[in-house]
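Structure in, sequence out. Go:
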């Protein structure tokens, strides 16, 4: 089902709307024009600094952590954010992508402030030779002179990051961590980790930059389209998480009502 999310996210959804708009243009011109405007206009709007900042800022509730707050945690956990394939400059083959490098740099900074042990989490999405966590370990060692204490290399998404990391941490007696990720990603990640039984201090990095106070704020650029797409992906992930939690709660409530009904019925019968 991974492919399905790309159909409802830009730029694919915009292209589909544009194509459908052209197909409907002759028979239903008003509908065709609307779909074409929505597809092309939406794509241009999402590519502006104003749109990308607006979409990302709503995802970033947590402030930067302080040194005093770090004292309440037992470890620093860095989530993988993706990889670049066959990057030649480091000699490792694949390397962490820019988002992951940002997380690693911030985790190294927090480690030097606190002395807390490090954990990296990330697996293989498409059967790659090395897990993402292994690449993160190499980056910490070769570029920052640090060695992670724990390497979780099986997870493929945020929910699995939380589940597999929690099992390793709890076995080591770790129950509260500083969780490092992009500011826009942390709210969903925090919920996943707390659901897995780990107390979290959010440690956000890579905050959304405000748009310039000029017409440049409305100039479409590919960079900002990518930022907007990333934000929409996260909003979609939050929506799925809300639905999942609602369904779980609904099923639990239905189960409790059923148990209560049959218990009462059997009690009356006996």
């Amino acid at each position: 089902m991974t492919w399905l999310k790309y159909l409802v996210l830009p730029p694919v959804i915009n292209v589909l709307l544009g194509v459908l708009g052209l197909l409907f243009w002759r028979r239903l011109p008003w509908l065709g024009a609307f779909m074409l405007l929505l597809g092309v206009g939406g794509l241009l709007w999402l590519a502006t600094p104003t749109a990308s900042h607006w979409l990302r800022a709503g995802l970033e509730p947590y402030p930067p952590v302080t040194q005093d707050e770090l004292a309440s945690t037992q470890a620093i956990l860095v989530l993988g954010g993706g990889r670049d394939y066959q990057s030649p400059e480091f000699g490792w083959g694949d390397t962490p992508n820019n988002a992951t490098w940002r997380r690693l740099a911030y985790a190294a900074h927090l480690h030097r402030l606190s002395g807390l042990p490090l954990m990296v989490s990330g697996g293989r999405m498409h059967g790659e030779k090395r897990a993402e966590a292994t690449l993160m370990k190499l980056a910490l060692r070769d570029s920052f002179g640090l060695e992670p204490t724990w390497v979780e290399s099986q997870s493929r998404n945020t929910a699995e990051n939380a589940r597999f990391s929690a099992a390793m941490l709890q076995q080591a007696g770790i129950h509260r961590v500083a969780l490092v990720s992009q500011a826009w990603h942390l709210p969903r990640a925090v919920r996943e980790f707390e659901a897995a039984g780990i107390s979290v201090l959010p440690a956000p990095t890579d905050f959304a930059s405000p748009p310039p106070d000029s017409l440049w704020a409305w100039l479409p650029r590919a960079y900002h389209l990518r930022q907007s797409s990333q934000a929409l992906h996260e909003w979609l992930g939050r929506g799925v998480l809300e639905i999942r939690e609602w369904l779980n709660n609904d099923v639990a409530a239905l189960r409790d009502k059923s148990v209560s009904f049959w218990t009462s019925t059997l009690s009356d019968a006996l």
